[in-house]
């Protein structure tokens, strides 16, 4: 794939960093959008590039998703060496099969009550359904009419307005309600510290990915997938182009092994 000269230059610099972290959003970035979230899969080209990157020394790959960890593990089909972050930074799988999520009995009860409210909202509209996450819920409206989608958002916001400490995130054909306020930016900071990364590549397509772009430093590279204002330094049009950039980055990282030191 041909990328701009500026992006090619930054990829070359990034590939030369001692310890590289490649952190990637899943839906809409690696995987094209589909109607049933459980059917989403990364493009084969993106998957191939990820496998080449994880095979390099001092190179870590992480998936940073809004999905619940169980769902991310199912659709990502990633090797164990890939670090996983689910629920927008609430759940982590870091070099251990254990998924970290400290949850009190009180929070579990609150989550249950929130679910009851959102299930009641969803039941009022056609083609609106609730996805369950450990600390919250996503109300999906992808197949609903524009009118029902708007009404769903309004009703869900009104019915949950009395609940303290709720974080609301709007995404693509989805509105999410969580009892945790962690962001992908928090998650990316944690991943950078965990891996000891000297530079970070982050790619994402949605509003929640902007939190991650905003914590990147001068040595890092942010890649927005799709149109729209962004804090990322570079943009490409679609997941196919993201896969192309990842393949370029993998090639440049592989070349590092044969360069004289
Ligand atoms: O942070 P991400 O990995 O991008 O996850 C964001 C949400 O992705 C999923 O929903 C979105 O993708 C679905 C599959 O393409 C699509 O049907 C839906 O309309 C999109 O909103 C997932 O279901 C959510 O839980 C994630 O938060």
Automatic annotation (TrEMBL):
Its cofactor is Mg(2+). Removes the phosphate from trehalose 6-phosphate to produce free trehalose. Pathway: Glycan biosynthesis; trehalose biosynthesis. GO terms for molecular function: trehalose-phosphatase activity. Signal peptide: none annotated. InterPro entries: HAD-like_sf, HAD-SF_hydro_IIB, HAD_sf, OTSB-like, Trehalose_PPase. This is Trehalose 6-phosphate phosphatase. Its EC number is 3.1.3.12. NCBIfam families: HAD-SF-IIB, T6PP. The keyword DNA repair does not apply. Belongs to the trehalose phosphatase family. Gene3D superfamilies: HAD superfamily/HAD-like, Trehalose-6-phosphate phosphatase related protein, domain 2. It catalyses: alpha,alpha-trehalose 6-phosphate + H2O = alpha,alpha-trehalose + phosphate. PANTHER family: TREHALOSE 6-PHOSPHATE PHOSPHATASE. Keywords: Hydrolase, Magnesium, Metal-binding. It comes from Subtercola frigoramans.
